[in-house]
Amino acid sequence: MNKKEIVGTFLGAVVKQDSTTMREVAHADYIQHNPFVPTGLEPFMQLLPVFNEHGTHAENVRMFEDSNYVFMHNIWRNAKPFGADEMVAFDILRVDENGKVAEHWDAMTTLVKETASGRSQTDGPTAVEDRDKTEVNKALAVALVEDVLMGKNPSKITEYISAEHYHQHNPQIKDGLSGIVEAVQYLTSQNNMFQYTKIHKVLGEGNFVLTISEGEWSGKAQVFYDLFRVKDGKIVEHWDVIQEIPTEGLANGNGMFGFQ
Predict the structure, then answer these.
(1) With CB atoms counted within 10 Å of each terminal CB, which end of the chain scores lower, N or C?
(2) How far apart are CA 105 and CA 225, in angstroms?
(3) Residue 94: enclosing H or E segment and its boundaries?
(4) Does domain 131-244 have CATH number 3.40.50.2000?
């Protein structure tokens, strides 16, 4: 099996509570970065009856691969154990050199029915294109985060984002460059602008790039997952999940980052 198939088999086994298959495809020392899930495969499997009781399951929208990482855009249904009936998430799984699932990161947010752009938090293209441009597109996404979101040179935003077509899936921001400007003006007026401070990981496959960053918003530490779609050298679409980094009630001490 390739890495996507390994991950798909693992997630299918989780839904079916198939512990035998889970032990076959995942490492016993499975490292967990979801702050509310215990680390280790056996402790994780002890939570499966809770998921089964609620009917909690992931509906995959997009799946990509970069080196040893498989990263996914998912909708979690019946997700009360995670905080809400329906949630949007990015999940990342690392497959080790032996072909076993070894580590998991994620960020989750409540699914919003009505958005500023009229788009959902997950709709839009899913097919990977331009695999030969993966590294160039990753560099473009990093430059956008550093110059615009970290504030090094915000005026360069038009060098990174298409002025003609920019589809926005953040539920509070409208489409287009004008939507970004409007959102920034409002947040700034409220003294509540996003503050990105560090990029922890950049993953990409072709025209899709995911950046995982740390920062602050509303006076609290946050993890920012931003997925960008690139076309003809410009970012034309954006999805994201923002989650507060908790400090209490933690099930493990691994933190939400710690990428290799």
Answers:
(1) C
(2) 11
(3) strand 86-95
(4) no
Rounded distance between C-alpha atoms, residue 187 and residue 133, angstroms:
34
| 63-81: pLDDT as tens digits | 999 999 999 999 999 999 9
Report, as ranges of residue numbers, the positions in the chain whose pLDDT lies below 50. Answer: none
CA distance 138 to 205: 9
CA pseudo-torsion sign 111, 115, 121, 122? positive
Residues 6+ apart with CB under 8 A from 233: 136, 140
Domain boundaries, the chain: 3-110, 131-244
d(CA 126, CA 128): 7
How far apart (Å, rounded) are the C-alpha atoms in residues 43 and 34? 13
**pLDDT given at position 181:** 87
Rounded Cα distance, 132 and 141, in Å: 16
One fold for both 3-110 and 131-244? yes
Rounded CA-CA distance 195/132 in Å is 32
Under the phi-then-psi rule, with left for phi > 0, alpha for psi from -120 to 50, and beta for the rest, what region is 232?
left
Q: How far is residue 60's CA from residue 230's CA, in Å, rounded to a whole number?
A: 21
Beta strand 195-205 with 57-66 is unpaired
CA angle in degrees (0–180, nearest 5) for 43-108-120: 145
Domain 3-110, CATH number (from 3.40.718.10, 3.30.465.10, 3.10.450.50, 3.30.70.1350):
3.10.450.50
For residue 241, which amino acid is it? V
pTM greater than the 0.85 cutoff: yes
Give pLDDT, residue 184: 85
**Residue 243 in tokens:** 């989650």
